[in-house]
Predict the structure.
Amino acid sequence: MIMSDQKLASIHMVRTGPRGDAPVVLVHPVGLDLTYWDRQIEALRDTHDVVAYDLPGHGGTPGARADWTFDRAATMLSEIVMSLGQKGAHIVGISVGGMIAQVFALRYPTLVRSLALVGTAASFPNDARQAMRDRADTARLTGMSAVLPSTIERWFTPAFFANRPDVIDRVGKTLLSDDPAIHAAMWDMISGLNVAGELSRISCPTLILVGDRDPSCPPAAARVLHEGIAGSQMEVLADASHMSTLEQPVIINEHLSNFYASLPRQR
């Protein structure tokens, strides 16, 4: 599938930082939008060409249920990368963004300079797959308010929930504004992910970050990625749950900056 120019133009994106080197492209999690990368954009913009975009049906990008297959999501990312005027990009993805990044790297290896996979997985046990399908059914039949409490509980540690009501309020309002049909379609898609057997084909430099208290994509899931992708680096983040980019932005940003500093610059 090749996107039309009109479809590409409809994708809401922001771009900042010096041009010339391969850009850093940020792929957000299910239910949120590009504005949740604000701390990473702030940390990287002085030294990197940074791009963030809204997935279909999120933020300013229109979308429909039919948009949600991993192949479609990877194709969209490939079109975005090719539109940036460079020969590939560094991809950062959290949660479903990291899953899209893996599929992108497998389908379009020449467009990938590196991967940073945060709080994500390559496959899931059967009970987790069923829980995802149940979550999709709940959103579809009852609406976003029915899935909000369990989502917040999975995404954040109790301490962060207590100490940062501002972030919790912002996340909750964003999730409640989401289209339940698109949310459900994404969870149906996620429930079928299984690329663990293909990870050995990913050859680009890869950084894997996971919160030590992440119940959705725990350190065991990160180890599958680490063992499957040759030469990858893995770091377990203390006192972080699933949305580690929000809970521990300073640590995340340090790991990203150090990772990019270790790579040869490619134009």
Remarks:
- The longest strand covers residues 112-118.
- The domain at 5-124+193-261 is CATH 3.40.50.1820 (Rossmann fold).
- Strands lie at 13-16, 24-27, 50-53, 89-94, 112-118, 206-211, 233-237.
- The mean pLDDT is 95.
